[in-house]
Design a protein that fits this description.
By secondary structure, the protein is of the alpha/beta class. The protein has four helices and six strands; from the N terminus they run E-H-E-E-E-H-E-H-E-H. Strands 1, 2, 3, 4, 5 and 6 form a six-stranded mixed β-sheet that branches. The structure holds flavin mononucleotide.
Length: 159
């Protein structure tokens, strides 16, 4: 586990409403950086003011992050020196679903330290008829890569 300096406080704001895929990633990441965790589908107006590092972690729903995450970014983020990272889990891994959020953050002058994406079991729509796609994801390797990403990102932030 990463020993945080006194000056660094991290929070992961997440949404995971389909199969809990994103929650698995959130838990793996939070455990290695000792982050606070906020389920945005339960807490509509989270207070992010005391944090140096904020991770927005979401399943992908209709090509984009959960509405609650988008609202949270819209209402809470501005160029106050807070560092952000983005994480998505998605059924189809052929495009970078974090790009839209990166653009939103850039327009607000918020620094995005990096992004991570992996596949997650998807039974939405027609995929449900075949038992879903990306059935075993996130798997152990996805979780390990997620942890490596967040450690690298937060260490970068700490320096
Ligand atoms: C309503 C809905 C829409 C989805 N839209 C997409 C999509 O546009 N692209 C994609 O790759 N996956 C899509 N998925 C699959 C999810 O992004 C994927 O299963 C993700 O891991 C779900 O995370 P969760 O279990 O944490 O909610 C969708 C799933 C649902 C339920």
């Amino acid at each position: 586990m990463l020993k945080k300096g006194n000056e660094m406080k991290a929070v992961i704001v997440y949404a995971s409403v389909h199969h809990g895929n994103t929650k698995k990633i959130e838990e793996a990441m939070a455990s290695v950086i000792s982050a606070d965790v906020i389920d945005v589908t339960r807490k509509i107006k989270p207070d992010l003011s005391g944090y140096d590092v904020i991770g927005f972690v979401s399943g992908v729903y209709f090509h984009t992050f959960h509405e609650g995450i988008k609202k949270c970014i819209e209402e809470n983020m501005s160029s106050k020196g807070q560092k952000v990272f983005l994480v998505a889990t998605c059924g189809l891994g052929y495009r970078d679903y974090t790009k839209g959020m990166k653009d939103t953050l850039a327009k607000k002058d918020v620094l995005c330290m990096g992004s991570f994406q992996c596949r997650g079991w998807d039974t939405y729509g027609i995929f449900g008829k075949i038992g879903g796609i990306a059935k075993k994801h996130p798997n152990d390797r996805d979780l390990k890569e997620a942890q490596e990403f967040v450690l690298k990102t937060v260490c970068k932030t700490n320096n």
